[in-house]
Amino acid sequence: MSENLDLFSTPAPAEQVQPAIKIKVLRDQLNHWAHQYYVLDQPTVPDAEYDRVFRELQALEAAHPDLVTPDSPTQRVIGAVMEGLASVRHTVPMLSIHTETDTEATGAQAFDARVRRELGLAEADPAIEYVAEPKFDGLAMSLRYENGRLVQAATRGDGEVGEDVTHNIRTIRQIPLTLPDGVPPILEVRGEVYMRRADFDALNERQREQGGKTFVNPRNAAAGAVRQLDSNITAQRPLSFFAYGLGAITPPAEGGPVFRTHFEMLQTLKAWGFPVAGQVQIATGATELVAFHQQVGTSRDALPYDIDGVVYKVNSLQLQRDLGFKTREPRWAVAHKYPAQEMATKIEGIDVQVGRTGKITPVARLAPVFVGGVTVTNATLHNLFEIRKKGVRLGDQVIVRRAGDVIPEVVGVIPGNRTGYVPNFQMPKACPVCGSAVVREKGEANHRCTGGLFCAAQRKEAILHFAARRAMDIEGLGDKLVDQLVDANVIRTLPDLYRLGLTSLIALERMAEKSAQNVLAALEKSKQTTLPRFLFGLGLRHVGEATAKDLARHFGTLDAIMDASVEQLLEVNDVGPVVAQSLHTFFQQPHNREVVEQLRTCGVTWPEGPVAERAPQILAGKTVVLTGTLPTLSRDAAKDMLEAAGAKVAGSVSKKTSYVVAGEEAGSKLVKAEELGVPVLDEAGMLALLSGVGA
Ligand code: IVH
User: Fold this and answer.
1) How close is the Cα of 102 to the center of ligand 1, in Å?
2) Are the C-beta atoms of residues 647 and 641 closer than 8 Å to each other?
3) How many alpha carbons lie under 13 Å from residue 145 in its C-beta half-sphere?
4) Rounded distance, CA 653 to CA 671, Å?
5) Which residues pair with 135 in a beta bridge?
6) Distance from the CA of 242 to the center of ligand 1, in angstroms?
7) What does the alpha-carbon distance between residue 656 and residue 52 come to, in Å, rounded to a whole number?
8) Which one of the listed residues 24, 135, 213, 525 is annotated catalytic?
9) Residue nearest to atom 6 of ligand 1 (CA)
10) Whole-structure pTM value
11) Bridge partners for 241 per DSSP
12) How are beta strands 161-163 and 409-413 bridged, if at all?
């Protein structure tokens, strides 16, 4: 059907020309935007604009079904369901790479020495130029384009014969379905399909919530997604792609391109719209290979995707041909690994940890194992369901995964190592910290301690929340100090904070007199506060900063809030039945009223006044991001003013941001705003906006 778009060779019927041209223009536009968004990570138009054009194309195609081609952006999710995957014989075999397991320096040196020897070079000859690339931990893919259109995608299989997964690969937005004019008529791009770590974590989180199957690691998740028979499933698994090589290509004799180096070829692939990893670089001689291995090794945890090593390739394609192959491996490339991110070890115990919100997490105590570059002795088991699903029992041999900065986790049991009967792990009935009952609410995956503020773990959280900057703003009262104070039983309730004296503080480990005085001064200062801060600081369920402000504005005094009926609470802006009931219940409890009373007795005060007029909500529904230093207003003051006018103040810029207010030394948020076309205001502009004069 593609002839319909070949407008210049065969004159199309008059009434067909217009839609065909229009369709081509829309597809080019959408492909261009999609490339900027998915490959370059630099969106240039709002989502809404993309969607609008997409719908326009869909409508045109619906009206002209004969003009629909499989490479149209509308056909990305084609919903094809296969009965089984067909076999594909690779025109050029997909090779593997020899793996160098030696240490950093000797691995690279051994490879360089081998290459030089095989090329017959003497010591005095110049150093060899290599291309150093990350070794992506996904699965190899061969993408075949004919006349600039993706016609086939195949897995590596045994290197000779792979599986046809075209229907699934079409759903990966980073993979172009069409290539620009002038590409060789036959082009096979080789690369790696993988899943970014954040996408993997989100996918597993979603699966866990829905009680579905979780995946062991991004590679398995990607491989499973690619080999689906139903492409609708693949489309829901966020996959990415990096190009790293070529398979078949139109030869120069038949007008194909002439590449001199591997690097040049990669740059060309990039220009044709394929994602090429930013880390790829030229390295000359063994020394620079070692440096690359070290440099990528130190940034490995920070990369958004898993790598299991680096790959060194001789850059000159002529030298590659001279070196040739040894069975299935090229002599011109080698993989150099990093410590594995998954290792086997034994579960020596299963404990539970009480989180600061009362959540109880089972934790495996492990026989120490070196994984992902560190020695790991504990790994999370997430919750009871995960333990049951994975079938983990005490004493089992398990696989532990530690990738990036994430907490190590037990991903599965190595079967066949259990020698006798081992009982299933049971959740404790009582909290190991406070002894209160442990419960699991209906529909929840997690068990929780019901101890509330009676539980030290939760008390710590409550105190930290009370002391937070947006609450009582007690400077210097951080994690460590709160741990010490609660563990030493110096503080049991919030009012105890204001009963702290110099002696009890100095008695704590690593607490100098000067720091102790600073803490006391900060506590003293925090006593002068505002009603919204105080309310928010109490950490009532469902009462965030915005609700605290609404309550204060509506009722004016704390007593009025404490004595309000559910009906009266419901009159407050944005307070629904759940919040109203929970607030009412909280203040009906004598011990909660007692805490409030004691805090007041300790000297905590705020200006109480008549019910303030609610400012007009001229920014209702708008999202604003603050960045940089404003000339006169503090960040908090600006935030308060924006929120009072109904705006939501967010921490990062996205397509949904309505305005960015930028001051001195505004950084990446400003850049992002400009990229996304979000209006940028200075302080004066913000004030104008608030007074109703601005944009
Ligand atoms: S080149 C001639 N480059 O590693 C060698 N492979 O055994 C052809 N891999 O499963 C492969 N990152 O998918 C090459 N930057 C990279 C790679 C890479 C990962 C994988 C590849 C294959 C295995 C090669």
Assistant:
1) 19
2) no
3) 27
4) 10
5) 309
6) 11
7) 16
8) 135
9) 135
10) 0.63
11) 193
12) unpaired
* CB of 518 closer than 6 angstroms to any ligand 1 atom: no
Site of tokens 């929840």: 444
Separation between Cα atoms, residue 624 and residue 615, nearest integer Å: 17
Degrees to nearest 5, angle at CA 490 with 484 and 492: 100
Residue 3 — pLDDT band, cuts 50, 70, 90?
Answer: very low
Q: What share of the chain is helix, strand, coil (3-state, %, to 5)?
A: 40, 20, 40
Tokens 């900060």 found at: 522
pLDDT (mean) for 285-290: 95
Residues in Cβ contact with 684 at an 8 Å cutoff, skipping those fewer than 6 apart: none
Which residues, listed in sequence order, are joined to residue 412 by a DSSP beta bridge?
399
Interstrand relation of 333-337 and 374-380 (parallel, antiparallel or unpaired) = unpaired
For the cut 90, the answer to whether the pLDDT of residue 532 exceeds it is yes
In 3D, which of 567, 527, 570 has the Cα closest to residue 551? Answer: 570
d(CA 461, CA 588): 23
- CB–CB of 471/452 below 8 Å? no
Query: b/e per residue, 588-615, with b = 16+ CB within 10 A?
Result: eeeebeebbebbeebebebeeeeeeeee
Whole-angstrom distance, CA of residue 198 vs CA of residue 220 = 15
Looking at residue 613, its amino acid is: E
DSSP helix/strand/coil, 363? strand
How far from 458 is each of 157, 586, 639, CA to CA, in Å? Answer: 52, 17, 29
What's the pLDDT tens digit per position in 609-619? Answer: 665 556 678 88
135 catalytic? Reply is yes
User: According to DSSP H, which parts of 119-196 are helical?
Assistant: 166-169
Question: Which pLDDT belongs to residue 631?
Answer: 86
Residue with tokens 């220009």, as numbered in its chain: 271
Helices 479-487, 456-467: crossing angle, 10 deg rounding: 140
State CA 616 to chain mean position distance.
37
Read off the DSSP letter of residue 315.
S
Residue count of the chain:
695
pLDDT of residue 466: 95
Q: Measure the CA angle with vertex 342, ends 341 and 345; round to 5°.
A: 135
Mean pLDDT of the chain: 89
Structure tokens at 194: 């993988």
Rounded Cα distance, 539 and 468, in Å? 11
Cα separation, 142 vs 674, in Å, equals 37
At 580, the amino acid letter reads A
- What local confidence, expressed as pLDDT, does residue 6 receive? 37
Q: Residue 646 and residue 641: Cα distance in Å, rounded?
A: 9
Looking at ligand 1, which residue's alpha carbon is closest to its atom 13?
140
Give the strand order in the sheet containing 281-284: 98-100, 333-337, 307-314, 129-136, 281-284
**CA–CA gap between residue 342 and residue 403 (Å, rounded):** 8
pLDDT (average), residues 16-34 = 87
Q: Burial level of 618, CB count in 10 A (0-12/13-18/19+)?
A: middle
Comparing CA positions, the residue from 306, 316, 368 lying closest to residue 337 is 306
Give me Rg for the CA atoms of the chain. 31
Return the number of other C-beta atoms located less than 10 Å from residue 110's C-beta: 15
Q: Is 306 in the pocket of ligand 1 (CB under 6 A)?
A: no
User: What tens digit of pLDDT does each residue of 44-93 get?
Assistant: 777 778 888 998 999 999 999 999 988 888 887 666 667 788 999 999 99
| Dist CA 97 CA 156 (whole Å) | 13
- Atom index in ligand 1 nearest the CA of residue 280 equals 15
Residues forming a β-bridge with 146? 149, 186
CA–chain centroid gap for 254, Å, is: 45
Q: State the first-to-last Cα distance of the chain, in angstroms, to the nearest integer.
A: 49
Cβ pair 307, 134 in contact under 8 A: yes
Ligand 1 probe mutation, 92, 97, 195, most atoms within 8 A of CB: 97
- How distant, in Å, are the alpha carbons of 538, 603, 645 from that of 649? 22, 32, 11
Amino acid, single-letter form, for residue 351: D
Tokens coding 265: 């070829």
